[in-house]
Amino acid sequence: MADVTIDLPELIRLQAEARALKLPSARKIRTRKAGLQRSPQRGRGMAFAEVRQYQPGDDIRSIDWRVTARRQAPHTKLYEEERERPVLLLCDLGPSLFFASTGAYKQVRCAQVGALLAWLALWAGDQVGGIVFNGPHLVVQRPARRKKSVLKLLDTLADLQHQPGENTARQPVSDQAFGLDQALAEARRVAHTGSRIFVISDFMGVSEETATLLGSLARHNAVSALRIIDPLELHLPENGQFAVAGPDGPVWFDASNHRFQQAWKDRVEAHEHLLEQCFRTSGVQAANLLTADDPAAALKPLLGAGGRIG
Length: 310
What we know:
By secondary structure, this protein is of the alpha/beta class. The chain folds into two domains: 245 residues, von Willebrand factor, type A domain (Rossmann fold, 3-Layer(aba) Sandwich), CATH 3.40.50.410; 39 residues, no CATH class. Helices cover 34% and strands 22% of the residues. The protein is built from ten helices and eleven strands. It has a six-stranded mixed beta sheet with strand order 6-5-4-7-8-11, sandwiched between helices. Strands 1-3-2 form a three-stranded antiparallel beta sheet. It has a two-stranded antiparallel ribbon with strand order 9-10. β5 and β6 form a beta hairpin. About 9% of the residues have low confidence.
C-alpha cells in the first residue's frame, strides 16, 4: 500500500537523510545556467576556483608565481565569492499528485524532496523559502536564513496535502484555482535575481503559458524542474482490470483493451512532447523522480560533489 500522506515530524526527521548527502557548510554563489548544472561567478574572494593563463586586465596580485615559473607563462588565480543565496522551492500538492500505484503518493514525494532541499540549503548558509500550492490554496513564504523558516515551510507542506476521503476536485472559496502557472507567476514577484529555484511537480498542469513563465524565471535565476512520476502514468500493464481512485469513486479500466491501450499511449506521447518542448523553450532542464524511488537516493545524483545544490 502506497504512503498517502506525510506529517510534519516525518518531514523534520528527513534532516538525518539530508545530512547523509554531506553538504559542505559553505555556499558558493552560482550564476544562471539551464538545468542542474553549475556556473560559478568568478571574482576576488575567499574560495580558490582555478588557475588560468594571465589575461589583460587581471589583477597582478593574483598571479600564481609557481605555476608561472613552471609553465613559463603568466598564470592567474581565480576565486569564487562566498555569499548566501535565496533558494525558492515551488511545491505542487495539487489533485493530480494525490495518486500512486507504488511507493508513495506523488504529493508525499514532492513534500519529501522539498524538505530535503530545504535542509540542504539551510545548512549551506542559504536563505530558504517556498511557494506551496494545492488548487484551493497557494501559500508564499519569502526566503530567510533561519531554521524557523524551514520548519514553517515543512508545516505548510504537511498541512496542504490532500487527505483520504477528501474531494480533490473541490474548488476554492474564491473563483481562482491555484495551479502551476499561478505559482510560477507568483515566483516572478517573490524571487530576487540570482535565486536558486526548484519547481517540484508532476507537471500535469502544464499549459501554453508555462514555458513563457519558466523562461522568464530562468532568465535571471537558476531554475530546475523536478518531475514526480508514477510508473503507471507512463506504461499501463499489458492485461488485467484495475481501479483508480477518483473524486467520485473508483474508475475501472481494462488494460487488455487494445483501443484503450492505444488511446493511453497516444495521450502519454502527446504530454511528453509538450513537456519536452516546454523545457527546451524555457531553457530549463528537468529531472524525473519516480514514486517508487527513495527520495534521498533519487536526489543525490542531481546534486553537485559533496551534495551541493548547484
